[in-house]
Amino acid sequence: MPGTIGPKKTWEVSFAGMEGLLTSLLNSGVTVYAPVERKDRLGRYLFARLSHPARMAWNYTTTSLPPKKLFAPPEETLFTFETGKGEPLVKEVCPTEPFVLFGVHPCDLAALDRLDAFYADSPAEYRWQAQRSRATVVGLDCTPDEHCFCVDMGTMETRHPADLFLTPLEQGWLVQTYTDKGEEFLNNTPRERARESAIEEAAKRTGEKRKKAAGRLKGSVEQIAAALSRSDEEFWEKYSAACFSCGSCNLVCPTCHCFCMEDRLDVSLSSGSRIRKWDSCQLAGFAKVAGGGDFRPSASSRMRHRWKHKFVYLPRRFGTAFCVGCGRCTRSCPGGVDMVSVANKLLETFGERVE
Fold it and tell me: Which residues touch 345 (CB under 8 Å, ≥6 apart)?
């Protein structure tokens, strides 16, 4: 995963200019996915195909599902097959048309960055890479709520892998481009080179955001990992008592990537399809194997595994935690399990003394 990369160019675009850009994209038939308010739950948001610029939710805090769903859907057909007298006929199903992913917050950009590294690791997952190459990614700055801990996870100012990134100003947008694709995206949009005052205004906003969201975790990622290695079964039994093993935390997480396969046959048994679906390590049957064995029969063992996966196992391979501080798991948990509270109690119980 690359380190901090500065923008190629920095522009100012008016509010009207940005709305005009969205209007032009939609009128030209470009597929745009963006955060919109859910019709079934007002005040909640999701990434959906944008039908009109007015539906774009510029000030959303988070979405119910992360944008990874546009590259690895909750359920997708990998290929179809037909059997006959000769060799089976297999046809891969893989969308190829380009699209724009608009309005991705820094924590979700950090998640995409981690998944890019994960799926590029040998043996590389070519479908993820193919789907990522279809997208132009437009980042958007955010306002954290009480569940966000992106500052503590070091993701609050993530810009990679956005092609361009938008920060709101009093009179428009500060637009930073990071790739050639990002520059081309603005080709027909009225813009001016950013003034120093605009850059300073954006930096002030970042500072205020940092003050609002910092210090929720009482230790570093490294301290959490060390505390995890010393934690015992009693601790996880206590904090898993509220867990319903429903898997919601996994399904809303922007970096979780477990899946299962399913073959679906027609009634003649002569054709069908192979389906890949999201799975969850928190489900009761996730670790069951042939013969009736179960490596993680208890909710406590599954919860501990999830935490070690985020803070120990994957950081060993990729050098960074696979939690980005978005807070979705806490918001979605019907049992009220709070990621920050558990982490702080873990540090208090098994970590080095943290002031």
Answer: 235, 239
Phi-psi region of 325 (alpha: psi -120 to 50; beta: other; left: phi over 0): left
Residues 6+ apart with CB under 8 A from 75: 275, 276, 277, 278
**Residues 225 and 201 both lie in one domain:** no
The answer to whether 50 and 57 are in contact (CB under 8 A) is: no
Render pLDDT for 56-76 as a digit per residue (tens, 0 to 9).
999 999 999 999 999 999 999
281 and 332 in a single domain? The answer is yes
Roughly what angle, to the nearest 10 degrees, separates helices 106-120 and 126-133? Answer: 140
Residues 193 and 285 in one domain: no
Residue 88 maps to a domain: no
* Sign of the torsion formed by the C-alpha atoms of 318, 321, 324 and 330: positive
* pLDDT single digits (tens) 329-343: 999 999 999 999 999
In this prediction the pTM is: 0.94
Tell me how far CA of residue 222 lies from CA of 148, 214, 351, in angstroms: 19, 17, 10
66 within a domain of the structure (yes/no): yes
SS3 category, 349: helix
